[in-house]
Specification:
GO terms for molecular function: calcium ion binding; zinc ion binding. This is Putative EF-hand domain pair protein. 49% of the residues lie in helices and 8% in strands. It has 175 residues and is mainly alpha-helical. The protein folds into 2 domains: 79 residues, EF-hand (Recoverin, domain 1); 73 residues, no CATH class. α1 packs across α5 and α2 crosses α5. The radius of gyration is 17 Å and the shape is globular. The protein binds zinc ion (ZN) (2 copies). One zinc ion binds next to β4 and α7. One zinc ion (ZN) binds next to β4 and α7.
């Protein structure tokens, strides 16, 4: 998580003033009582997930039960950069943030479904998931094989990017 937080801060510092403004606006949007921090209540109201406590704890570096702007930036980075991947494993402890290696359903990816079906290593290994496709590849192998097959340059549509709305939608679906 520290690595991601550092990446998030680097990302934020390189944003244009306009995008920095946008990040501040998102923060203010979640901070409904305007006290400069996001409480777990406000966080839940914005994201509404069963995984919310774990997610909040991961983001709350100081452990004071509140997210300041610095901590919020990590969430912003994960969402904006599309690095906020969700494990679809049943009752997964790694969810909602999957970093590094994970497995993705090849068919869902190729069919351009609304969302990809992704699993962390332990859910995939232990078969802790229900899905109607059986062919999974880890994200690194997958990206390499995809790049090798394609002669054309990837379009925007090839990226699975999580927008704020999708992020909220996906977490709401967990309830
Ligand atoms: Zn699938
Ligand atoms: Zn998992």
């Amino acid at each position: 998580m520290q690595e991601i937080h550092n990446a998030a801060l680097a990302y934020y510092h390189n944003l244009s003033d306009e995008l920095k403004q946008k990040a501040s606006e998102k923060f203010k949007e979640m901070d409904s009582n305007d006290n400069g921090t996001i409480s777990i209540k406000e966080f839940r109201r914005s994201l509404g997930s069963s995984e919310i406590k774990r997610c909040f704890k991961l983001l709350d570096k100081t452990g004071d039960g509140k997210l300041d702007f610095n901590e919020f930036i990590t969430l912003y980075y994960l969402v904006e950069s599309g690095r906020g991947v969700f494990c679809d494993g049943h009752g997964c402890k790694a969810s909602p943030f999957l970093n590094g290696l994970y497995f993705t359903c090849v068919e869902c990816f190729h069919n351009n479904e609304a969302a990809t079906f992704d699993l962390c290593t332990s859910c995939y290994r232990d078969g802790k998931y229900v899905h109607n496709h059986a062919s999974f590849l880890d994200n690194y192998v997958f990206l390499r094989s995809k790049a090798a097959c394609e002669s054309t340059t990837p379009t925007e549509d090839d990226h699975h990017e999580v927008t704020y709305d999708q992020f909220i939608l996906e977490t709401e679906n967990d309830i």
